[in-house]
Every structure is written in structure tokens, then in C-alpha cells.
Amino acid sequence: MPHIQQLPAHVADLIAAGEVVERPASVVKELVENAIDAGASAVVVEIRRGGMGLIRVTDNGCGIAPGELPTAFLRHATSKLRSAGDLGKIGTLGFRGEALAAISAVSQVEILTRQKGSGSGASLRLEGGVPGQVEEAGAPEGTTIAVRDLFYNTPARLKFMKKDSAETAAVAGLMQHLALSHPDISFKFIKDGAESLHTPGDGKPESAVYAALGRDFAKSLVPVEGRGGEVAVSGFVTQPLMGRGSRSMQVFFVNGRFIKSQLLTAALEEGYRNQIMKGKFPGCVLSVTLPVTEVDVNVHPAKTQVKFAREREVFDAVYHTVLDCLDARTVPAVSKSVQQAVNPRQDFFQTMDARTYREQGAKSTEKPVPAAASKPAVSIRPAVQTPARPVAEKSYTTSWDGEWSSTVQVADSVPPPVRPAAFRPLEKPAGAFGKPPASVMEGLAEKTAPAPEKKPEPLAEAPVRPEPPKPERPFVPAIPAERQTALDLPEQQTMEEPKEVPWRIAGEVLHTYIICESEDGCVWLIDKHAAHERVNFDRLKAGLEPPMRQTLLRPIAAELTKEDGALLLENLPLLEQFGFACEDFGDGAILVREVPADLNAEDTVPTLEEFAENLRAGRSLEEKRENLLHTMACKAAIKGGWTSDPAELRVLVEKVQSGEVKYCPHGRPVAVKLTKYELEKMFKRA
């Protein structure tokens, strides 16, 4: 049996560092939380190579005394706890005193700090947890910590690090959460020399949401605020119609600390029950505030999970706050100014009933505007020498009913120039438009009088020559004769009559379920979405060629979370196999230029969100591929509530009745069978 011995201090520090420092994002989290606890109002985070090369955090907090710098990097050294009783009322983000010791054990650290009101600052260098000498240095008020070559002395941890893009996305996502939890602090995030995030720090939560999560997501949010007992809830939630494809946009804070809680997620989604589309998830930025004695934050090394003393009270507070907000959302009333200004110009697009229109028409005919009083229209066209045209003294009026008559003066009422007699159109006879003047009738009679007939003079007969016969065009067959023998052309086939099937489609209910009657007297209820989803999944899985693509007329910029965007960019070759043509659009966004032909363009962003969720859950390449196939088959399938063609329903029923389709790709049943005995038993016949 091996002997029990105490591990060396260096090995113990490496083990402890493995619990606290998991990746570069863990280092950033610990350092920024220390800056927030130090009372900083501005924090700048800079990383290079995903944080593996450099992590620099600068704040304008209270600073550290030069004599306390070596002590700050010892294990369990902290300024936030004084006694065991403080563990029950933790009000700071950090408290264990392990962050600086763990970080310095696996990297090279340099710290530069200066207290407020002090004339000079101090600096200290550490390598592998071994501190150097404290030196006096010039520095601004606050603290700057630079961490270089992370995990340089722990190759076992270094080989499990992901690509620089994935680590950068993790740090960017962390900075988003920190900025949302403290809108009163200005955060700036710089990655590889480019600024990626900058919040104003004006104390307004909506400003932090706009800067951290983008304009589109901020526009879909509605503010919420409520209280239940000692639990206060505030923040923003998405509108029911703006559901997301995954839960990645659900952000929760408890007393300013970002956490992941199934309790809060369940309370949020319970408030959206019967108000959000199935398969969609609400997004939120919710802050829960309660007494520090009612929550235990020391249950996870990364401090991302907490335990509530009264979970039911917290659940009810979040649930009722969200539910009351959604129930209070009504159509906004039209303001009085808009109601009064129905038609401010009063000249067109007037709304009136038939009686008002007839009354206005009768008033307009009482006092007609004389022709002499009307202002003559001005013509800018050059004068044309044309013969004068007789104009009738009396204006022609229609013989329509008086209530439909109109005396509107048209500006362009200048008579057109008179055409020559050879091209002048015939005058209309008297009728509905009144009797023309006598002068016009006399002139018309003279023009239309029959001329005396003249006998044609005899002409000399010319010899008739027979027309030569036209040569017939030779018939050129579509296929040359020498090739007709080589080609085996199929004969004309007639459509066969459909074979009789041992079932009958009785109809469709709720635009979702197909009712089918089989010859053995059973009734089948078939879910058309589940059946079509299974058909698509089998077709995609068996297909050797990639699906047909469609190029988008306008590329779609999918704004996802930093982690989801980086995960999809790592798997671009896998997405291309399913018909997606994507590229990096910067700052976590993905530009989609081509999508599968079976996919609607409006489903592109939700599909990518589900892709990211499936890629995160999948382990092997084959498992990831199957998860993506599930999403593709679901998005391309006909949806419940759609109106389907009878031919589509017939194909689905045939697949089910033949036994080819039994379950959807997610394992749900496709059809339910009711025998005649079961139906008669329901109606008390059996």
C-alpha cells in the first residue's frame, strides 16, 4: 500500500489553479470581478491570441498598497472576509482569495498599482507563482494586471485549449455579461488591437443592452419590473413573437452576479406558456435582487451557480413579473393629435359615405363657375399655325344623374390643335352627349353626300401567265435517320390508373392531423408535421449528394452570441455539407449567402441558433451530423396549421400505412391508431 504524504506546495498550487483557472475567460472573470469590488468606474480588458498570449485588465479602482502586493498573491488572502460569519452574507463578487494565487501559478504576471491620493505606485513581477521584488513605479490611480503565456508550465492543461477564435468568443461573451450586470461601469474590450465592446457606463440598463447585445435584440425587448416579498425583479424580456431558436439569449443576474439557474429559466418560460410558438424560447436580461443572507454563492468553483433559501418565492417573483408584463401589453391608443389630423390638407384621400358625397355633388352644381372667371391655363409649348376649329358656345354636359355630375375644372383644358380634314376623326352623332350645332351638321352632310357613280372604262385584257409551282420544302427529321437506329426511343406510355389502397383519407382536422380509415375498420390520426419531418430526415441521411442550394438575393447577417458565432465558424465545412454558404461578418456575426432550397429564408437565423446548440451538445462528428440533420428536417417540414394539398396528405398517409414511417427523428409517435372496439367503447356501444 503506498504511503500517504503531503504534496509539495507547487503541485498543490497547480491543482488549485486547475479548479479556478479553466481557460482564459476564467482569468478575465476573476480579474474584472476584483476590479468591480475595488470600486472601479471604468475597466479596460485587452487580450491577444484568445488570451493565451496576453490578458491585460486596467481599472481606476482603489488600488493596492505597495506593502500588501506580495500578500495579495498568497492563497486564501483576501480583503473581503474577516470572520466565519461573513460567509453567510457575501455581498462581493470575489471572496475566497484564490484568484491571484491560482493565476500566478500557471502564468507570468506583472502588476502595476497606485492607491488614490498616493504620490507614486508600485510594481511586482511573478513567474510560476514565485514573486520578485516590489519596485516603485509611476502609475495612474488604480490597478493594471498583465497575464502572459497562460499554462506555459502545465502542458496537460495547454493541450486541451481550443482555437484562438473560440477562446476569444468565450471572453467576449463574458464581457457582455459583466457589462449587462453593471451598467454604471464603463467596460471596454479590445481583442488583437481592435475594439469589440464599449459601454457608456451611464447607469441605464437599456444603454448596456444596446451596446452589448446589439440593436436588433434591444428593439425586441420590453421592460419588466416587479417584486414578491423581499425579491425584486427588473430588466427586459423579449416579445412573444420574437422568440429565439435556443436559450442562449437568456441572461440572469442575482445581486449583480451572472449565474446559470434552471429555476429562473423555468420561471421565465412558464410566464410565456401559451403565448410563444412551440420550439421557440424567450430571451431576457433579468436581474434578481434579494437579501444576501437568502442566497448561497459558494456552491461552485466558478461561482456561476447559486442556491436560494426560499426557491418558491424566487420562482413566483420571476413568473408573476413576466406574466404581468405580457398581459399588460395591449395595442397603444391613438393620440388625440393623430385623431384630429385625419386629413390636414383637405384636398385628397377624403373619407365620406355615399350620402355626404351626393350632397356635396348637389352643392357643387348649384353655383357653377363661369368659364370667363376661370384663370386661363398657361402653355409653355411653342405656338403652332393650325386652322381654327369651331367651338360650340354651349358646353356639353352629360345626361347622367345630377347627383353624380361634377364641375371640377381641369387645368389642362386647352383645346387641342385642329387636325387636317383627312385625319380629322368623325364627329359623334347626337345622343347621350346632346345635339351638335347646325353648322357642324351641315358640314358633315356635305362631306358625307354620295358622289355620282362613274362607269369604269374598259381596260385591255393582259395575258394571264400561270404561276410557277412553289418548290416543296424537304422534310428534315429532328433526329437523323442514321441516328434513329442507334437510339432506343421509348414508346408512348399511358398513365396507369391509381391502384386501390386498403385505406381512405377521411379528412384533416385542425390543419395538423390527418384522419384515415383502414379496411380493417380502424381509424388513424396522423401528425403531418412529424411524418414529413421523418421523410425529410431519411432523405437527407441517405442522400450522397449535398442538398440543393438557393442563393439569397440579399445576404442575411445573423447576429448570434459570441460563443455561437465562433462555434459555427469552426464548423463551416460541416455547414457547407447541408447547403449553407457562410462567412465571418465580424464581431460574432455570420453572413449567410446561400441556404438549402428546402429552407425558408426567414428560418435561417433560428436554424443557425439550433445548429450551434446541437454542435455544443454533440460529441463525435457523426453525432453532430445527426443533430444537424434533425434540425434541417424539422425546419423543412410542413408545419401544423398550414393548409396542405390533398396529394401531399396522400403521400404521407401512404408512407405511414406502409410502415416506412413510424416515429419522427426525435422519437415522438407519428400516428395514433383507434380500433372500432375502442371507438364503440367511447360511445358506450361495446
List the helices and strands and how they pair.
Layout: H1 9-20, H2 24-37, E1 42-48, E2 54-59, H3 69-72, H4 99-105, E3 108-114, E4 121-127, E5 130-131, E6 135-137, E7 142-148, H5 155-158, H6 164-181, E8 186-191, E9 194-198, H7 205-213, H8 215-219, E10 221-228, E11 231-238, E12 250-254, E13 257-259, H9 262-271, E14 284-289, E15 295-296, E16 307-308, H10 311-328, H11 336-340, H12 354-366, H13 438-448, H14 481-484, E17 503-509, E18 513-518, E19 523-527, H15 528-542, E20 549-559, H16 562-570, H17 572-576, E21 581-586, E22 589-596, H18 604-617, H19 621-636, H20 646-657, E23 671-674, H21 676-682
Parallel strand pairs: 1-8, 12-14
Antiparallel strand pairs: 1-2, 2-7, 3-4, 3-7, 4-5, 4-6, 8-9, 10-11, 11-14, 12-13, 15-16, 17-18, 18-19, 19-23, 20-22, 21-22
Helix pairs in contact: 1-4, 2-6, 6-7, 6-16, 9-10, 15-19, 15-20, 16-18, 18-19
